[in-house]
Design goal:
By secondary structure, the protein is an alpha/beta fold. The chain has a single domain (5-195), classed as Nucleotidyltransferase, domain 5. The protein is 51% helix and 16% strand. The chain has seven helices and five strands; from the N terminus they run E-E-E-H-E-H-E-H-H-H-H-H. It has a five-stranded mixed β-sheet with strand order 3-2-1-4-5. The protein is globular, with a radius of gyration of 16 Å.
């Protein structure tokens, strides 16, 4: 299996952030995936609609990274509904790619972005603009972009054994922790690639 893209997701029942880096074209696509509770009150139907929309945007040889649950933050969803959304999306992504999505918590994303795991939520877009010269339209897309950036760095580190060129020390530290966390999944991915 040759990885074709790296996907970052920031899951929400109202506005899921989506970002995919294409490793062949060396570009990325970002978009929000929205649902409306007034038009569809069923959490499960909305979660399935989000999962189907994401599935249509990814390739079978993509690796998917998802922001881990942050139940205390609140995006208009309870912990139960976020869990239902996450479970459905992860199951659909696993069926599509053959691998369970890898989860990155928001503190890891913030540390990777600027070295500060406690960076305030409203400061993330400014830091993304400063470091990457990208201005996502929504906060959810911004977080999805960063989750995908972390995923790209993880995949590069896994493939080469080295952190990305020019990575600051705080990113290297986060990558070291993530490589341990994802070791079993990355080994399974490497085995699949070797037999493909």
């Amino acid at each position: 299996m040759k990885v074709t893209g790296v996907v970052g997701l920031d899951l929400s029942l109202t506005c899921t952030g989506f970002c995919r880096f294409d490793l062949h074209r060396l570009d990325h696509v970002m978009c929000p995936i929205t649902t409306n509770v007034k038009q569809e009150p069923s959490v499960i139907k909305r979660a399935v609609a989000i999962a189907k929309a994401i599935r249509a945007l990814i390739c079978v040889d993509d690796v998917v990274f998802v922001e881990d649950y942050a139940f205390g933050i609140g995006k208009g969803s309870t912990g139960v509904t976020l869990g239902e959304l996450g479970g459905i999306v992860k199951a659909v992504m696993m069926a599509r790619t053959g691998f369970e999505p890898l989860t990155v918590n928001i503190s890891e994303v913030r540390k990777f972005l600027c070295g500060d795991g406690g960076l305030k939520k409203d400061m993330i877009p400014r830091e993304v603009m400063k470091r990457y010269k990208v201005e996502p339209k929504t906060h959810d897309e911004c977080v999805a972009f960063m989750v995908a950036k972390v995923g790209m760095a993880v995949m590069e580190f896994h493939a080469t054994g080295l952190p990305p060129d020019g990575a600051p020390q705080f990113q290297i530290q986060v990558l070291g922790q993530l490589m341990k966390k994802f070791d079993a999944c990355l080994q399974a991915l490497a085995k699949k690639a070797a037999t493909a």
